[in-house]
């Protein structure tokens, strides 16, 4: 067989099959012998072979596919199947069928129900035998799991418009015509000064920046990102510029008070259910009209959660600057109230999956700014333990405080003990401050964390009488018990990891390992129908291994190895 001169032929059709046969055989009907085909040009032979293969393929496809596919010709313009005209025709036929179906349903309303009844009778599940039902229940898997993310609290409610923030100009005296124009302008015009950069020209290099202006910019941090970003940039520049103009030994910076911070959080949509049982306060018609006339609420703003996180980040960063420059700017009482407010805001349901780097750094600075330490440790832990009623939220609150400073380690350990005691109903009876160490107190609480004891505490309502409802209620109660025990056991691990284990505490830690294995690990029975038990079992095993590792690296006192040494 002769090869064409062109190394890249234009026709890529497969060669004839007969070239594999060395002997001469009779060709099928419609096919010429191989010797005759060698005389013809290669291109024509390959085209004939392609046409025969296509004809064979469509004969094997069946009549249904042949009817729905346009005819293929070797030399025509319809050599492709999915042409545009055929697709449009198919679309029109489908639309026509849907119209006829709707008209038929309108003309005969009972026809559709009868069709569905027939389908339901045909697709009705077969009745399982008791043996098959037991087999299905044995290998079924429950969808209830222990969530890795805390449920959160509804702290901030979405606002349709930002709350107007008016500048107090009663004590301000203009020093230039431009400043006089700014002070006499309305709120939208004053915001245009901010957006156009005119306020930087007025106050950035001034000898003394007026306090009402700084307070006004701090309130504007609650506005949409377009305005809050400019307000934060100007507030930061004015504060840094004022610090450089002051001597190093007498640096002073304006810091918002606790009441002003609370007002800013209320402007963001935070509300106290005790103060507002009907929901957040409602705006008057005058306020709503003024809000709508501002025109700064753009529809292309980021989502509510992202915008809220950006505004909170601005507030946290400015408070960090205040604490770095003036660590004594807040009293201990104000610091405790501010930390409670910040921790409550960090538990917002919309902020659960967002990073909290600025919040964690701010909490560390507030801890270091407390003057009466550790006298304020116990009141702070008691206040933070009531920020939420859910155990997983309180666990997330403990994790807000990073384990990087001695004070944060003390707070994490003490707060974990207080939360465990509160969840077990032992906050009043257990002496959390005294001569007993925290490991001794934890051993008393660990014995109450067994699943059977937690089940008695969580069973408030009596079990229903119906067997099906009783089984469902029992499964839900079992999930709640494992969920609570998982959070409590994680907090117990925080207490131990925050301790500097000394040789004299080796026996206390060994007792904790024994209680963990006796009261929790041995009471958990894994089952395919309850994957939450498997997760709790894994946590108990990991905690036990971690505590055993601490025992191995801690040199115990001699009395634990040779109790008859002195005898």
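^ structure tokens above, recovered residues below v
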């Amino acid at each position: 067989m002769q090869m064409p001169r062109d190394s890249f032929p234009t026709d890529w059709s497969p060669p004839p099959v007969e070239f594999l046969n060395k002997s001469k055989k009779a060709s099928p009907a419609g096919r010429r012998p191989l010797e005759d085909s060698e005389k013809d040009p290669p291109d024509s032979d390959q085209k004939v072979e392609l046409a025969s293969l296509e004809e064979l393929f469509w004969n094997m496809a069946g009549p249904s596919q042949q009817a729905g596919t346009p005819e293929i010709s070797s030399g025509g313009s319809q050599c492709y199947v999915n042409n545009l005209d055929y697709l449009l025709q198919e679309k029109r036929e489908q639309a026509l069928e849907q119209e006829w179906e709707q008209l038929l349903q309108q003309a005969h309303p009972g026809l559709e129900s009868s069709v569905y009844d027939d389908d339901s009778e045909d697709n009705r599940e077969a009745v399982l035998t008791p043996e098959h039902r037991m087999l299905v229940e044995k290998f079924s898997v429950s969808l209830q799991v222990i969530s890795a993310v805390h449920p959160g609290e509804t702290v901030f409610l979405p606002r349709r418009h930002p709350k107007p923030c008016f500048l107090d100009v009663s004590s301000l005296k203009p020093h230039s015509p431009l400043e006089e124009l700014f002070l006499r302008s309305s709120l939208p015009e004053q915001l245009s000064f901010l957006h156009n950069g005119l306020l930087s020209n007025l106050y950035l290099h001034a000898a003394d920046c007026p306090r009402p202006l700084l307070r006004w910019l701090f309130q504007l941090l609650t506005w949409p990102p377009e305005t809050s970003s400019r307000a934060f940039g100007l507030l930061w520049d004015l504060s840094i510029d004022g610090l450089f103009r002051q001597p190093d030994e007498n640096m002073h910076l304006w810091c918002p008070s606790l009441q002003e911070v609370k007002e800013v959080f209320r402007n963001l949509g935070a509300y106290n259910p005790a103060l507002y049982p009907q929901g957040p306060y409602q705006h008057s018609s005058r306020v709503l009209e003024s809000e709508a006339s501002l025109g700064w609420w753009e529809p292309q703003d980021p989502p509510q959660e992202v915008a809220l996180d950006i505004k909170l980040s601005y507030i946290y960063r400015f408070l960090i600057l205040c604490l770095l420059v003036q660590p004594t700017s807040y009293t201990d009482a104000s610091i405790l109230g501010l930390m409670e407010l910040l921790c409550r805001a960090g538990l917002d349901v919309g902020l659960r999956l967002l990073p909290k780097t600025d919040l964690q750094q701010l909490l560390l600075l507030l801890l270091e700014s407390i003057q009466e330490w550790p006298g304020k440790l116990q009141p702070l832990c008691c206040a933070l333990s009531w920020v939420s009623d859910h155990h997983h939220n309180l666990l997330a609150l403990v994790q807000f405080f990073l384990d990087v400073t001695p004070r944060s380690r003390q707070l994490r350990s003490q707060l974990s003990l207080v939360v465990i005691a509160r969840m077990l109903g032992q906050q009043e009876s257990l002496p959390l401050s005294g001569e007993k160490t925290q490991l001794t107190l934890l051993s008393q609480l660990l014995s109450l964390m067994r699943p059977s004891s937690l089940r008695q505490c969580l069973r408030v309502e009596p079990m229903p009488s119906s067997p099906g409802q009783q089984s469902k209620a029992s499964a839900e109660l079992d999930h709640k018990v494992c969920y609570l025990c998982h959070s409590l056991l994680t907090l117990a691990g925080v207490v131990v990891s925050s301790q500097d284990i000394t040789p004299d505490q080796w026996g206390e830690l060994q007792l904790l390992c024994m209680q963990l294995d006796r009261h929790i690990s041995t009471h958990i029975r894994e089952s395919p129908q309850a994957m939450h038990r498997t997760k709790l079992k894994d946590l108990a095993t990991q905690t036990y291994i971690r505590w055993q590792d601490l025992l191995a690296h801690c040199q115990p006192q001699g009395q634990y190895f040779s109790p008859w040494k002195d005898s």
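The chain is about 55% helix and 0% strand.
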